[in-house]
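Course assignment 3, question 2. Fill in each field.
Student: A.L.
Task: Predict the tertiary structure for the chain below.
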Amino acid sequence: MRDNDAPYLLDVSRMVWRRWAGMRPTGIDRICLAWHLHYGPLSQAALFHRRGWHILPMHSSQALFHLLDDEGPRGQFRRRFAAWAARNLVHLARPQPGRGRLWLNVGHTGLNLPHLAEWVRSADIKPVLMLHDIIPITHPEHCREGEKTRHEVRVKTLLKIAHAVIGNSQDTLDRLNAYAAGIGMVVPQSLPVWPGTPRLAMPAGERPALSDDFIILGTIEGRKNHMLLLDVWERLVAQHGEAAPRLVIIGRRGWACDDVLARLEAGGFGNHVVETGALSDDDIARMLAGARALLFPSFAEGYGLPLVEALDAGLPVIASDLDVFREIGQGVPDLLPPDDVDGWAAAIMAYAAPDSPARAAQMARLAKFRAPDWPGHFAQVDAFLETL
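Answer field:
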């Protein structure tokens, strides 16, 4: 395929800087990788550089895509990227034409930077942008300082420049439409499409015996509502002593959670609350295999990948009663208000009971659950892009 014959322009800026920094992949990063693998062979690369955005020639693009395929250590990627840059960034002086092609940007990359709208016009491209959530706007109290302002810029830029918008859920698009109506803007043509579900490599052979563990999975941050579970476990330990179940907290420590961290440091839960930090996918699968349930008491989510991963792995879920969880949970999880300590304590003890009827009922519902996959995701997206 020659320069400018590629049907798409694929933005890989987020992938490059995340790999350069050696950051652990997030849910957004996994989506970027899936789009890279699917659309890379059909695309020229779009890359943000300190001089602005640039469309790279086909041979430079494919060399960069190949480099991003390599799962080697950060130091190796840095060396190889530096060598690639020395050979290829000279092409930035010879801008490639957009020719009205679709610019696929699924990582929120650069939407808060100045002059983006000017580049879109001058490059003659049609942005197709994915929106993952508007949580910093609707729930700023659970986000980093200043993130509300930055995200408002991103979302307004999206509404201004997008040729089309892809939402990771219908709930995300519903919230975008409500926000746009409130500021007198209109959402471009849009498509809700769930991302594919990473298949956890569950232990081979017979499933491990059921433990007394309940698991919460994800970065420790205020929005994830770990505090509710600490309130619940304080009560359970006081009421049931050594017979209380165990809470396993999997995930790195994040932001807006000083109260949770202080409470964990203070202890008082005995062996009934365990913090593991971040774990590998294999270790997570091993922990999930014998657990009673995944707990997901978030105040807000744009999608909720751990919920889908757990259900796909055959593990029941008790989660917050959020619209997005009703959507992606397909009627399987038990849903409770995120501030109902009594309700969560009762549900957890019901699931902890031997031969639990509540858990058995969800396991019966779980037999009908179908996790979204990447072939289905791209079948919908491909058809949508054809209409653009």
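Instructor remarks: The mean pLDDT is 93. The radius of gyration is 23 Å.
Grade: pending
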